Amino acid sequence: MNKWKKQTRCCWFLLLFALFWVGCKQASPQQAAAQGNKKNDKAVTLRIPNHPLRSEKDLDVLLQQIGDARIVLLGEASHGTSEYYTWRAAITRRLMQEKGFDFVAVEGEWADSYRVNQFIKGPKRDSTAAVILLEQYNRWPTWMWGNYEVASLVTWLNGYNQNKPAAEKVGFFGLDVYCLWESMTELMPHVKNDPSLVKAAREVHQCFQPFSADAMQYAEAVARASANCRSETSRLWREIQKKSQGTETPQTEAQFVAEQNALVALNGERYYRAAVSSNTDSWNIRDNHMAQTLKRLLDFHGPTSKAIIWEHNTHVGDARYTDMASTGEVNVGQLVRKEYGEENVFIVGFGSHRGTVIAAGSWGAPLKTIQVPPATPGSWEHILHQLSPTDKIIFSKDLAQNKVLSRPVGHRAIGVVYNPKLEHLGNYVPSVIPKRYDAFIYLDSTRALRPIETITVRNEPPDLYPSGT
User: Fold this and answer.
1) pLDDT-derived band at 18, boundaries 50, 70, 90
2) pLDDT tens column, 103-154
3) By three-state DSSP, how is residue 121 classified?
4) Which residue in 157, 325, 337, 386 has a CA-CA distance of 20 to 30 Å to 288?
5) Strand runs (DSSP E) across 243-344, as ranges?
6) Domain range enclosing 256
7) Number of domains making up the chain
8) What are phi and psi of 25, to 5 degrees?
9) How far apart are CA 203 and CA 214, in angstroms?
10) Is residue 248 part of a domain?
């Protein structure tokens, strides 16, 4: 592991506070500055076929290439860029309307996102109600899902579901593993009439109670070997699985939700326990949990169900074609391709050359609008800007003969903590672009996301949290 990664990714404070980590991994300074061969930039651009992206009608070519794929993963190069959200929403609407996709699953918490699912499947509501709903995403960084771009999509989903039979309503779910305390709270109403489950759930509550719903406190206790709730969460998971009566897939939605909350507790505990000793292990537990949750959702919705995934590029872009592979890390894109076959999965990456972004100067600090400088010469984004300073769609199948792009090229990734003055130290992930994605949406200039700024942050980590992702 190179020097930059040792300094930022292996810091134990980063691991302890990983509850709030949104997973934008970064590359080394040695690899970051100019992964692409600057001398070849012009030659490279001459061999990059592309399609203009000016309106939603221009997505026709993307819908054609997606074809009959069962799973479409939509990335983002930051968690704070408006256009990444609005274009993903446009693609999502068309996939649901034209190809019958059943749900969106996001890089968000299960409990919070399930309340969104209930909202969009309920009676007709307006955008004001959607904004109020999203204020529940009150764990820093709140702007990831507490923003007006998501509120617009939630309002549309609610309207789209009106007059649809219950079985045909589209859904909205969270894939992440962090908020195990919230999931335990959500679990209790589902088990209150079952003495064995109540007993197992209370044992989990009692084990975690000393830590006041604070993942840092639990992780510190694990590091001191003074706490370990592994047996309690495992026992709860075993007990709740017994209620499935031998079936692999829950028979009712209530049963599915109860199981999922127990699974979050199980894997959340594993995540925090691993975080104190291995960043690779904790990363892999998290992405395996997200892939497992996706599989559960697809199984529950039936063999013909289709899913749309919204996550950062570092989760959706196949890890085998980045420097993550060298450290043994996997991600959702890689796992889903292996599980369902590449012909049934379509991955879309996103990126831009310059603009503004919502991020923070340090972990837990107030959000702010930050200027994003032009992409580093030799990077993927710089190459596409030189091709033409316009928005465009690129398909990997058209890059098969491009020898330069068959090698790793720097590809910008911005985390929720961002300092543009330090971009040269590691905001570029070495990536074999045609292998990492099936398509790429390039937006030359982008603007900051519109956060719901009335949200009151809870469980905000202290100021000693290091900068980084």
Assistant:
1) very low
2) 999 999 999 999 999 999 999 999 999 999 999 998 889 999 999 999 999 9
3) coil
4) 157
5) 307-310
6) 180-286
7) 2
8) -85, 150
9) 17
10) yes
